[in-house]
Amino acid sequence: MSTLTSGEFRLPDVGEGLTEAEIVTWHVKVGDEVAVNAPLVDIETAKSIVELPSPFAGRVEELLVSEGQTVSVGTPIVRIGSGEATATPVAEEPVEAPAPEEKRLEVLVGYGPSTGRRRRRNRATPAAESAPRASVRVLAKPPVRKLAKDLGVDLTQVPSSGAVVTRAEVEAFARGHGADAVTAAPVSGVRRATAEAMIASVAVPQATEWVTVDVSASVDLVERLKRDRRFEGVRVTTTLLTARAVCLALRRTPDLHARWNESTIEHPASVGLGIAAATERGLVVPVVREADGLALPDLGRAIDELVATARAGRIQPDQMAGGTFTLTNIGVFGIDGGTPILPPGQSGILALGQVAKRPWVVGDEVVPRWVTTLAVTFDHRVADGEQASRFLADVAAILEDPGLALAF
Asked: Please, how many CA atoms are within 13 Å of residue 40, restricted to the half-sphere of its CB?
């Protein structure tokens, strides 16, 4: 964490070697009284939105960075005074100010949201003056702010029927104001991270193989498991069965989740299964740690929790670290198949196409069956076509006959 001096809170590195972040939403304004660990500001990193707590107890003297501005780690973003001489008494519990001669900071609770998040916003009296840098605030959720930025829309100009500007209102405003004009939006956050990852991936020699498979038995199993009380609260889908099949197949072809490290090839002891999740901020890949050691219901719960957190925009950097193999379901968009691109640092990624009824030859007859296409992309430095073919054949075999999982 960055050094904090004289009441100035500097943008900290919240993990994964952060170099810069965008200020998304201030939870305080000039004149507010804040307590240590009270919600202070939301920032957007390359991977997630993170809530930063206040490191001081005192009065907000100045917001040094505006919402929507991107700043580097170490940049002062807010100044908080002790509040001893000018703070206005509040009805809530008193805020203890540190002794001036000590200048000691209290310990911060870890970054990020927690269950049952509570925002504390002690307001100053109306007589408190606003700092020149503090602009008129328009209430809008982070994804709506990002949409407005992408469309070149000034949120202060968007008429709203309620207290919070909605996505529909931003889109309607954009359609009615220069819809044909070309707008340029800065590349930041998840989009920038994705672009950098794709550029890095190009340097890796990779190849892709496909197979089309009859997954009717897996579709039937999904319906049975939905009625099983052990799966209560779990979203049972062919994606979950595929995730389990991937973990089992990797036991027999460990090179598909190895890591190339110039002079060595590293073989992780367990599978860190990345689950590609489409969110309003872009594509993110949270990781299920030690996925190969989880029973199917537990694997399902872990996937559900991570995807829900990602789509809420609250996934943390450490929840996207440690991936060794990635699963992406492009079938949810009605796509039959595609060529997945390797995430940096991984040696394999499997794409699952849509599961749809197709004519299929069974014996000497053509009958309707549930069919899908699987595509695996692999790092040709650590694996050859043989290993990739065996891996893909194993995944396909398990999905075609889930009972074969007992043999792995």
From this structure: 30
The contacts of residue 11 (CB under 8 Å, 6+ apart) are 2, 21, 43, 71, 72, 73, 74, 75, 77
With helix as H, strand as E and coil as C, how does 254-305 read? HHHHCEEECCEEECCCCCCEEECEEECCEEECCEECCHHHCCHHHHHHHHHH
Kindly state whether residues 296 and 323 are assigned to the same domain. yes
> One digit per residue, pLDDT tens: the chain, 408 residues?
443 434 889 998 876 567 888 898 899 999 899 888 888 998 887 667 788 888 888 889 999 999 888 888 889 999 998 754 333 444 444 444 444 444 433 334 443 333 344 444 444 444 434 444 444 567 787 778 888 888 888 888 888 888 788 888 888 888 776 545 566 667 766 677 777 777 777 778 899 999 999 999 999 999 999 999 999 999 999 999 999 999 999 999 999 999 988 889 999 999 999 999 988 878 889 999 999 999 999 999 999 999 999 998 888 888 989 999 999 999 999 999 999 999 888 999 999 999 999 999 999 999 999 999 999 999 999 999 999 999 999 999 999 999 999 988
Domain span at residue 269? 190-407
Please tell me the distance from the alpha carbon of residue 211 to that of residue 98, in angstroms, as a whole number. Answer: 65
**Is the pTM for the entire model greater than 0.70?**
no
Rounded Cα distance between 215 and 182, Å, is 46
Number of residues that this document lists for the chain: 408
* 84: phi then psi, degrees, rounded to nearest 5: -70, -40
Q: How many domains does the chain have?
A: 3
CA 110 to chain centre: 18
Among the listed residues 27, 177, 257, 380, the single catalytic one is 380
The question of whether 27 is a catalytic residue gets the answer no
Do residue 362 and residue 350 come from a single domain? yes
Place of tokens 């968007």: 158
Do 70 and 105 share a structural domain?
yes
CB count within 10 Å of CB 184 equals 7
| Beta strand 325-329 pairing with 273-275 | parallel
CA distance 400 to 388: 18
